[in-house]
Amino acid sequence: MTQRPVFFTDADYHLYLRLLRRYSEHFELSVLGYCLMPNHVHLIVVPRDSEGFARAVGAGIARGDPHPGVYGRKQRLF
């Protein structure tokens, strides 16, 4: 886990939540809980089928930068 911030402004948190909703609907994940910390995210999700979470992670729901390049980062965070 990186110690560098992931979220810098309230808008960053809101963007992440919008993306989380989009991915969870697309990959049929039930989001039971989440905790957005300045430098990481905790998610409790239940996939509809055995492959749902793997597909979502492969697409970047649990890793990656919601603003690639905006804050000078050009690689995945987690």
Describe what this molecule looks like in 3D.
This protein is an alpha+beta fold and 78 residues long. Helix content is 32%, strand content 22%. It is built from 2 helices and 2 strands. It has helices spanning 10-26, 52-59; strands spanning 29-37, 40-47. The chain has a two-stranded antiparallel ribbon with strand order 1-2. β1 (29-37) and β2 (40-47) form a beta hairpin. The longest helix has 17 residues, at 10-26. It is elongated and about 35 Å long.
Quick recap:
This protein has 2 helices and 2 strands; from the N terminus they run αββα. The protein has helices spanning 10-26, 52-59, and strands at 29-37, 40-47.
Question: Which key phrases capture this entry?
Answer:
32% helix, 78 residues, two-stranded antiparallel sheet, alpha+beta, single chain, 2 helices, 2 strands
Itemize the secondary structure elements and their pairings.
Elements: H1 10-26, E1 29-37, E2 40-47, H2 52-59
Antiparallel strand pairs: 1-2
Poorly predicted spans = none
| Fraction in beta strands | 15-25%
Strand line-up across the major sheet: 1-2
- Biggest beta sheet attributes: 2 strands, antiparallel
**Mean of all residue-level pLDDT scores:** 79
